[in-house]
Amino acid sequence: MRKKNLEITDKKVLEEILSGSKICRLALIDGNLPYIVPFNYGYKDGCIYIHSAPEGKKIDLLKQNNKVCFEIEYVANIVPNVVACKWATTYRSVVGYGDVEIITDYKKKEEGLKIIMAHYGVSGKITFEKVPVDSMVILKLTITEITGKQSKNWDKIHNT
């Protein structure tokens, strides 16, 4: 990372970003071009869980190459200024790499869905209807590398 003073190395903060964010952008390899898709997701124990249709472009690409890059932003706010070049952004984000497994086993899909639901605040017993679960897959991204970054003004604005 070029600006080491902005790097997040605290694993607790990295976990907070992974656990507290709402959208994960997944970048796949499409021949010699990148292909990026946003998802809602769940996070647990170093893995990101995403539900998906069992066929389509992303599934085809993952079957060809399951190595991915992902990005998750925790908070991003624009801070305007009367001088155009003095605008700023406050943010915390992570970028990482990993391998995606396409899960088709019914019980494992239910486990992945429970992690996704819990990520968005659902607690207690969760039950799923058989037909929708049968008609989807879960993408389990095992994180192999991750870096975090925050804006230089983060601490001043968020007092963390």
Task: Describe, in plain words, how this protein is organized in 3D.
- With 160 residues, the protein is α+β, with helices and mostly antiparallel strands.
- It has a single domain (4-154), classed as Pnp Oxidase, Chain A, CATH 2.30.110.10.
- The chain is built from 5 helices and 8 strands, in the order βαββββαββααβα.
- Strands 1, 2, 3, 4, 5, 6, 7 and 8 form an 8-stranded antiparallel sheet that branches.
- The longest helix has 14 residues, at 106-119.
- The two termini are 22 Å apart.
List the helices and strands and how they pair.
Elements: E1 7-8, H1 11-20, E2 24-30, E3 33-39, E4 42-44, E5 47-52, H2 57-64, E6 67-79, E7 88-103, H3 106-119, H4 130-134, E8 137-150, H5 154-158
Antiparallel strand pairs: 1-8, 2-3, 2-6, 4-5, 5-8, 6-7, 7-8
In the residues, how many domains can be counted? 1
Order of helices and strands, N to C?
EHEEEEHEEHHEH
Sheet having the most strands: 8 strands, antiparallel
The mean pLDDT is 91
| Low-pLDDT stretches | none
The multimeric state of the shown protein is: single chain
What characteristics describe this protein?
Pnp Oxidase, Chain A; alpha+beta; 160 residues; 26% helix
In short:
The protein has 160 residues and is an alpha+beta fold.
